Amino acid sequence: MLDDAPATTLFQHIVDESENGERVDAVLALLLDGYSRVFIRKVVHEGGARVEGERVKPSFRVRAGQQIEVDLPPPPDDGPRPEEIPLSVLYEDEAIIAIDKPAGMVVHPAKGNWSGTLASALAFRFRQLSDVGGNTRPGIVHRLDRDTSGVILVAKSNSVHLNLSEQFEQRRVEKEYFALLIGKLELDRDVIRHPIGPHPYQRDKMAIRRDHPLARDAETWYEVQQRFGGITAVGVRPKTGRTHQIRVHMDHVGAPVLCDRLYAGHAQVTLGEISRRIVSQQPARKGDDEVVLSRQALHARRIDFTHPLSGEAMTIECPLAADIQRTLDVLRSAGK
What we know:
Elements: E1 9-14, H1 24-31, H2 37-45, E2 49-51, E3 54-55, E4 67-72, E5 88-92, E6 96-101, H3 118-125, E7 149-155, H4 158-169, E8 174-182, E9 189-193, E10 196-198, E11 206-208, E12 219-228, E13 231-238, H5 245-252, E14 269-270, H6 271-278, E15 291-293, E16 298-306, E17 313-317, H7 322-334
Helix pairs in contact: 1-2
């Protein structure tokens, strides 16, 4: 061993009946606090784990009574820097937290966004969070785009995190969004089914890609809630969870999300622009240049899931963000 190589600790565990048939990396992730499943998978992949003395892969299924041994390096210390950032907590118990994420907040640290993230705010406020998703994503089970507001779930333990992740994977979690769209949808309700993959030449966008190897099936249900001339308010339920799914699908049917810089081609809307979309050829008025909304009009307003501990059916709702509510009020007033 090199002098500067990190010292390892031998961890041993006898597989319990409740763990029979589980992946070895999943079992270890529940047992080892401070180690994410991503990190454990890397350790196992590099030959650091043995079952009954034989090296195994992360996907190896263990059996009750088998002995697992792992050579553990020190826990990684690359998590988000805790920051005292105000958080609006919609719900909290011993297992989960539901946060009302504001628009403009990045969920977890990444290139160009190392501070001011939801991960940093969570690390400051809550003492115990899951680390299944890695040190940079404490407790974070799913995500919302930076400029999308609304409810997001956070897990306090690895077992809760894995349970919620399984619900997402099996499509047993239902999310409903509120959106303001540019254009007139022909149908009052419909289901959009088109595969989504990387945009052919813009790296920060996604697109409908029917034959691309990285494209994945995507399904989005929508229902019109109110029509305002050239702007439509809708409720949207994505049945799958693809990147930018709602934004791509609504743009594809000719009604992109209002103020969506990537897919609608504009990032803000003024009082005058809203009025002219509702009442065409309306003369300019004082105050028409006031900006009403300066981010995409998309808000995660409800999530339905099964509580990981109690098994109870849960519904958590999130009031419309103030900027979207004001935009809706302006639309209703202009349409009178």
